């Protein structure tokens, strides 16, 4: 008896990956093994960089807060220490936004903790 192979399912599985790799350059978009490897590697990069994105934004917020704090005669570390000491619960994202877009509000916060 001949071997039974489900060509429909395997073809659909391959087509799904090839559809996801549309837009890649060269063999990465139409050669099954190359496309599959590239796609899997892309998923790995996506997972890794979702973590790195959080790191990068935190570093950016800290740089912005530090620059604004120094304009107001304070360093970043002294500002954050003073905020915790005065029990002002405000996160770095909001502080950085205030420093960039509302400098007068940021200055009021700095004056409060001085």
Q: What's a concise summary of this model?
A:
This protein is 75% helix and 0% strand.
List the helices and strands and how they pair.
Layout: H1 7-20, H2 32-71, H3 76-85, H4 92-101, H5 103-113
Structural commentary:
With 114 residues, the chain is mainly α. It has a single domain, classed as c-terminal domain of poly(a) binding protein (Orthogonal Bundle), CATH 1.10.1900. Helices cover 75% and strands 0% of the residues. The chain contains five helices and no strands. α1 packs parallel to α2 and α2 (32-71) crosses α4. It starts with 6 loop residues before the first helix and ends with a helix.
Instruction: Tell how many strands the DSSP assignment holds.
Output: 0
CATH topology: c-terminal domain of poly(a) binding protein
As residue ranges, the low-confidence spans are none
The CATH C-level name is Mainly Alpha
Write the H/E string, N to C. Answer: HHHHH
Shape: rod-shaped
Number of helices: 5
Structural class: mainly alpha
What is the first-to-last residue Cα distance? 87 Å
What is the CATH architecture assignment?
Answer: Orthogonal Bundle
Rg from alpha-carbon coordinates: 26 Å
The CATH superfamily label reads Ribosomal protein L20, C-terminal domain
What number is the mean pLDDT? 96
Tell me the β content: under 5%
- Biggest pleated sheet: none
Q: What is the oligomer described by this structure?
A: single chain
Structural domain tally: 1
Helix coverage percent: over 70%
